[in-house]
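Render this sequence as a predicted structure.
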Amino acid sequence: MIKKEMIAMLLAGGQGSRLGVLTSKLAKPAVAFGGKYKIIDFPLSNCINSGIDTVGVLTQYQPLRLNQHIGIGIPWDLDRNIGGVTILPPYEKMKNTDWYSGTANAIYQNMEFMQYYNPEYVIILGGDHIYKMDYELMLDFHKKNNAKITLATYEVPWEEASRFGLVITDENNQVQEFEEKPDNPRSNKASMGIYIFNWDVLKESLEKLKDQPGCDFGMHVIPYCHERGDKIMAYTYQGYWKDVGTLSAYWEANMELIDIIPEFNLYEEFWRIYTKSDMIPPQYFSESSKVSGCIIGDGSEIYGEVYNSVLGAGVIIEEGAVVTNSIIMSGTVIKAGAKVEKAVIAENSVIGENTEVGFGEEVENKYKPNVYAGGLVTIGEYSTIPANVRIGKNVAIIGKTAEADYPDGVLESGESIIR
């Protein structure tokens, strides 16, 4: 029988609706990050850097490109005969066939996969955070404290604590109570959604709660185990951790990569971030180009000006175009004379000549004010913006648009074009 000490189950099926048009046809973990990577590269790289060689990736929403990106796991050294990476979509069974309806329900539906490796421990991970973490240190803490469950926590600023699921611990870091997004928090230890379970505890609790609608670890499994007296420990993580689930947080995390001394360093030799890389030519900068404080992907051609921005592979910035404080994803073309300020532009889009993106005052977005905020312009993949138009702030656009979509050549702040 195969016996693994610890296997990882990586939850990557989320829609990521708070990323708006960026995830209209793409699972959130497959969204580009840092010019070269996908969000899922970070937990996958953490696994291999932590010595975990068996990872189940649970997919559901728009999985095609996520599956293509992961493939058989070669970039992460997870192409193995025993273990490696396995894509785990929902599948039809003899009875009780269903989509994954909650984090714990998704894990329960893959009990057979876990049973095959008969692990001592299972680590549950999310696929939508940016961080570097040695899970082996967390496992050592789990063993040392003789815990049944250990959850990773991160001390958030007190003024932000009410946005998170929080744990209250004693002086030994043993969990005493839970608070789910409380109005008046008594703790600032936020759960990171990373859990190490003893395999027998996980198996028993999932079987017990299998009929719970939308069964979730934070809402159901952990409280159930706590109530029956299982020892639950909180492992305090002190490195960089960013939930990039909103457009503002996603933009901020990318911008932090280009700080003079970045808090999150992509260039450390001892903790590399691995990804699938295409064979493409190097960047090209024309004699007249101006670039400062940027990450520029391979194969990009810069003829204009780019400042404080993150560009993916194969981006073209034509002569006279100026890009500032923006994320421009792979294959996008910014035509001559265009001005782009504080925008997130997804793959293979075209911004027309002399078009201005991100002008004027901030106005609340009429379509989805909680999604399109922070003064950003968000343009979905394969979008076309015609020449000589002006686009305001807190705007969302996806699809091929024409001059007729811009009254008097303007799309005012707070408006949207969703195709």
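Summary. DSSP finds eight helices and 33 strands in the chain. Helices lie at 41-49, 64-70, 103-108, 111-117, 135-144, 199-208, 217-227, 247-256.
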